[in-house]
Amino acid sequence: MSRVQFAAVAYYVQKKTNSQQSQASNVSTIKDVAKRANVSVGTVSAALNKTKYVSPALVERILQAVHELDYRADGIARSLKRGKTDLIGLIVDDLNNLFYVELLEQIEHEARRNGYSVLLCQSGGDVATERAYLDILKKYRVDGLIWSTAGKPEHYEAEYGGKFPVPLVLVDRVQPSFAAFDHVVLNNSSAGRQAVDYLLDLGHRRIILLNGPDYLSVAHERRVGFQEGLIARNVEVDDRLVINASFHEQQAFEACCDLLRQRPDVTAIMAASGVLFVSALRALKACKRAFPGDVSVVGIDDFPLASLMTPTVTVVAQPVRRMGRVAFELLQRRMETPDAPTVHRTLEPSLIVRGSCRPVGDSARPVKKSRNRR
After folding, report:
1. What CA–CA distances, in Å, run from 26 to 22, 73, 136?
2. Are 207 and 148 found together in one domain?
3. How many CA atoms lie less than 13 Å away from 19 in the CB half-sphere?
C-alpha cells in the first residue's frame, strides 16, 4: 500500500478549500514577488518558467524574493495555460478487496513512471458516490480516467451517448452502454469454467457458487462459466446452490452460512473472488464443517497468503499487474490520440492447484501435486 498515493478526493477538496479561505490574506502572489524584486510580473514569470532569457543577476534577485515571501506558483493556473494537469482519476469499488489494491499499485506505478499523479476515489459500490467523484475529478481537470463501475447497467444507459468529458478506460467491469470506450477485463467465463472443471475432476457434484451480484459483468460471466462446466459434464444445474450476494465479506458470509446449514450434502464451494473466499472459510468454521476434509474450496483471485496458509489455497489467478499496466497504456494512448480506434482487451486466467481441494470421499489427504493450468 505504501507505493500507492491514495487521495481521499472529497475530503481533500474540502480541506484545501477551507485552508485556502482561511489563509487567503497571507498568500503571496506573483505581483508581490515582482514588487519585492523590483521587476515586472512578466520578468518573474519568464525567470520561473524559463520561457525566455533573464540575466543571472535578476534571476538571483527574483529567487531571493520568492524565498522571502514563500511564494508558490498556482499549479492549477499553470495547468490551464498548458491545457494539461498531469493528473488521472481512478474510481474503484472497495479497497478491502486485495484485487483492487494490487491493481492500483500497478496503475500508480505506470502513472508515476510517465509523469502522472493519481487521484483515487473509492465508490463503495454506490452509484451516487461515483457520480459525486466524477464531478470532483472534472473540477480537478484530470487528463483521463480509469474506472471500475459499481452499478447496474440501467444506471449508465445512454448517459454519455458514446462520449465522455475526458479520455476514459474501463477496467475489470464493463457496462453495455460503454461499448464505445476502451476497456481491459478478465476472461471471466473461462475463470468460472476452470474452477468448476477442477472440482468436477475431483468428483464433486454438489457445489456452491458463492458469487457477487449478477448485474455486475464479472459475476455474471463467472456464473455462466460455472454453469457451462456443469452442463458439459451432464451435472444438474441447481440454482439453489448459487449465491448472488455481494463482493463484500459480511453479506456473503451470512448467505453462505444459511446455505451450508440447509444443504449438508454440499462437498465443495467455488468462491468467485478473494473476498468471497474469506467469507466461505468463515462460514465453514461457523457451521463446523472441516476444510478441506468436509468441503473443498477453490477461489478466483490469487492473494499473497494463498501459498502460505494451511492448507494452501487452490485458485484461478488473474494477471492483475498486467491488467493495471494495460489499463494505463490504453488511457495514455487515448489521451495522446483521442480519435484512435476503440480497443477491448481480454486477459486469460490460470488455475493454480494447491491444497484446498480433495477428491470426494477422500478426507484423509489433499491433492498431492501442485500445478499451474491455463
Report:
1. 9, 14, 26
2. no
3. 6
The residue segments making up the domain with residue 59 are 29-71
Predicted pLDDT of residue 370: 40
- Label the pairing between strands 242-244 and 207-211: parallel
List, for residues 74-101, the tens digit of each pLDDT value: 665 566 556 688 999 999 998 888 899 9
What contacts 317, CB < 8 A, 6 or more positions away?
301, 302, 349, 350, 351, 352
Task: List beta partners, residue 316.
Answer: 300, 351
CB 315 within 8 A of CB 289: no
Please give the C-alpha separations between residue 298 and each of 165, 247, 263, 295, 350, in angstroms, as whole numbers: 41, 16, 18, 10, 13
Spatial CA neighbour of 9 closest among 167, 135, 149, 136: 136
User: What are 164-206's pLDDT values in tens digits?
Assistant: 889 999 999 999 889 899 999 999 999 999 999 999 999 999 9
CB 222 within 8 A of CB 196: no
Q: Determine contact, residues 143/85, Cβ cutoff 8 Å.
A: yes
Instruction: Show the cell assigned to 273.
Output: 473472488
343 domain residue, yes or no: yes
- Report the candidate in 128, 127, 121, 124 with the shortest Cα–Cα distance to residue 145: 121
**Residues in CB range of 373: below 8 A, 6 or more apart:** 194, 350, 351, 353
User: Could you give the 3-state DSSP secondary structure of residue 38?
Assistant: coil
Residue 188: alpha-carbon gap to chain centroid: 16
Candidates 353, 344, 367; CA nearest to 181 is 344
Q: If you search the block for the grid coordinates 485458485, which residue do you land on?
A: 315
Q: Are 48 and 65 within one domain? A: yes
Residue type, 321: R
20, part of any domain: no
Number of domains in the chain: 3
Angstrom distance (rounded) from CA 129 to CA 133? 6
- pTM, to two decimals: 0.78
Assign 109 to helix, strand or coil.
Answer: helix
Cα pseudo-dihedral 289, 290, 292, 296, rounded to 10: -10
Q: What is the CATH number of the domain that holds 113?
A: 3.40.50.2300
